[in-house]
Design brief:
3 strands, 3-stranded parallel beta sheet, 63 residues
């Protein structure tokens, strides 16, 4: 995982749900909060963090 987690406002449970599904426990992992998936994707694409993002939205961004 990238050094910093990007938390999308309105999706606060995503990181904990993902960790629970993987059977791991996360430390205090949120370094920054943003108000849209697009902003989160821009941060991730610059290598400045990691985010949990809808697969459908991600596909549209990659295209």
């Amino acid at each position: 995982m990238a050094e910093r987690a990007v938390q999308i406002i309105g999706s606060e449970a995503d990181w904990d749900q993902m960790a629970g599904n993987a059977g791991i426990e996360l430390r205090d992992h949120t370094a920054m909060k943003v108000d849209s998936s697009l902003i989160a994707l821009q941060i991730v694409s610059r290598g400045q963090g990691a985010a949990t993002i809808s697969e459908d939205f991600l596909r549209n961004y990659i295209k």
